[in-house]
Amino acid sequence: MPKPTQKQTIYDIAQQIGTSPSTVSAALNGTWKARRIKAETAERIIALAGQMGYSVNLQARGLRTARSGLVGLILPEHNNRFFSDLSQSFTLEARARGQIPVIIATQRDPKAEMQTVQDLLAYSIDALFVAGAAGPQQISAFCQAAELPHVFIDQPCPGASSVITDNEDGARRLTRAIIETLQPAIAPPRDRIYLIGGDGRLHVSSRRIAGFRAEIEAHFGQCDDAQVIACGYAPEMALASIRALYDQLGGLPAGIFANSINVFEALLRFLVELPEAELQSVSMGCFDYDPYGELLRVPVHMIRQRHRQLVRTAYELMDQPPEHPELVTVKPELYPAPARAARVPAQ
Amino acid sequence: MPKPTQKQTIYDIAQQIGTSPSTVSAALNGTWKARRIKAETAERIIALAGQMGYSVNLQARGLRTARSGLVGLILPEHNNRFFSDLSQSFTLEARARGQIPVIIATQRDPKAEMQTVQDLLAYSIDALFVAGAAGPQQISAFCQAAELPHVFIDQPCPGASSVITDNEDGARRLTRAIIETLQPAIAPPRDRIYLIGGDGRLHVSSRRIAGFRAEIEAHFGQCDDAQVIACGYAPEMALASIRALYDQLGGLPAGIFANSINVFEALLRFLVELPEAELQSVSMGCFDYDPYGELLRVPVHMIRQRHRQLVRTAYELMDQPPEHPELVTVKPELYPAPARAARVPAQ
DNA sequence: GGGGCTTGTGCAATCGATTGTGCAATCAGC
DNA sequence: GCTGATTGCACAATCGATTGCACAAGCCCC
């Protein structure tokens, strides 16, 4: 039980033992062998330090070594399943390496992002990970100028190493799952699968859309442009889109591919008002994961990004920086919906 | 656009301007008036610093001032709605004060908690907030010894200031809401409301249970001990409990009070397998919030802790430490279930 | 017994800021 | 023109560690 009554320094310890501060320093930070300190001396120092409740002043060390043991992670928000999963994995990974994770949410505000990067740099953080920033290029340019190692996660940034989910692969698998659970005998015009949400101009969305189209074409020979409703990520837009689609088709389509959890939530807001029987006729998939998805009365396939793997890979890119910036992809995980058979039918 | 080509120091600036480092320091950290630096000199320095892309070395400043601008928040995990809400609020509050929030998840592991506290202390953090720690007393003792200001959030710790949700009040309001949406004409033994989950030995649970009982007694004259099933927070236990209750009663009870989101999830796992009609007969409440709660086919009342308020209050306790440790409560928010009338009945 | 090697440790500079104190130069007042 | 206050700034110590280098003592070997 350490009792750090008052700040202890290596000078205090040195005095107690009757040795010099440099010897104490070496003994405590593990370089004593290299400095040829006698094992017994080192042990005595370490023992005393322990019972005095000494702990290094990391600011002093950091000042001298120009490092800090802090690693940063910038993300848009905390209260989001994916980002909190990412925070979790990042924390575990950083702690395992003896680093202190500093996770900062910047609300997708480029100004806040830059301010944060600068602040973190002022603390001499050792590395920076960036997930879902609004202004990636600016961040990357800044880090490069400051020679701060950095890697983007879940977001490709030109000129910097990035590790992202294989969105195309995920979209294909999700689409396939939706196809496999299509209810038989649904008449036109309700017999098709629609992708809702996302923004075709963004890298992430475009890959997902490509995957969706590819899989639809592979199974049905073609994919009508109308089947891709990239209305953005705003819930209101998604809600409006599904409503319009419902009216246009005279009911729900045979399948729905929700392009993100927000979109899915919006859809759900609409679906939950419908009679159960109607619900049961649709085959759904969501490109994102939430445990509640498994607890709905509608079966939903979900794609979950491998957050742990993303973080690990990002760290690897950091540890052994490639010659040129690299874009690494990680395949996501499919959480297939519980089989319909297991559910008690309505009524 | 700052371009920090290479690390700049106040010495570099001093040389460029032809002044001393101390003057530069004063000009840049705002103490120049107190040090009677000419306004023009200060401006010149500030301008040059800006165009050189200078930024203070916070480790150096921290070493000198024995502060750091870092504030810690310890919590059990990131991927939990409440804690991520808390992280969010904490980040905003800290950033607004010009501090860097350092949020660390310690998995409810007392060892990891202590290790983290020590690490943070080694960085000379200015303050520590603790939410949901497994070993609060140990943490508090350590902080006291190190004279580190600290406040507990959502968890009372003897001997330290704490700000927690008014669990009794929340439980009463939640219970009242459940009572108000009870379906008419449910025959015994299924006509009662049950609280499921939690641990009566914990402060938080005991207050909730007290609130539940009080409100039940106020409405029904008495509360049977059997109506409180404090089976812990483990999902498996909750699942087993609801199953046993279902078997015992020959159906669902009239009302269910889920004592936490985990418990609620477990219940849902059971409920989702039941026919819709049965579901519609139960009035539910959950002491925790998740947006998905609003999207279920079962109406659910939810209690949400005011995370923003908790953080603000905690900061106030930190800013103006009371003579003796104080326990402040914050009333939570009730998210009533959408009215049943708005829902299309099954079939 | 002298030269060279190894062993164990101390000295002092250094990282980049902050801050108490000292001291010219200027100014005001008589 | 002299005194005392004010203005504007520089000096140097300091925070607590790390680290290059020097150096004494002991040892080996011829």
Automatic annotation (TrEMBL), chains A, B:
<keyword id="KW-0238">DNA-binding</keyword>
<keyword id="KW-0805">Transcription regulation</keyword>
<dbReference type="GO" id="GO:0003700">
    <property type="term" value="F:DNA-binding transcription factor activity"/>
</dbReference>
<dbReference type="InterPro" id="IPR028082">
    <property type="entry name" value="Peripla_BP_I"/>
</dbReference>
<dbReference type="Pfam" id="PF00356">
    <property type="entry name" value="LacI"/>
</dbReference>
<dbReference type="Pfam" id="PF00532">
    <property type="entry name" value="Peripla_BP_1"/>
</dbReference>
<feature type="domain" description="HTH lacI-type">
    <location>
        <begin position="8"/>
        <end position="65"/>
    </location>
</feature>
<keyword id="KW-0804">Transcription</keyword>
<dbReference type="InterPro" id="IPR001761">
    <property type="entry name" value="Peripla_BP/Lac1_sug-bd_dom"/>
</dbReference>
<dbReference type="GO" id="GO:0000976">
    <property type="term" value="F:transcription cis-regulatory region binding"/>
</dbReference>
<keyword id="KW-0678">Repressor</keyword>
<protein>
    <submittedName>
        <fullName>LacI family transcriptional regulator</fullName>
    </submittedName>
</protein>
<dbReference type="InterPro" id="IPR010982">
    <property type="entry name" value="Lambda_DNA-bd_dom_sf"/>
</dbReference>
<dbReference type="InterPro" id="IPR000843">
    <property type="entry name" value="HTH_LacI"/>
</dbReference>
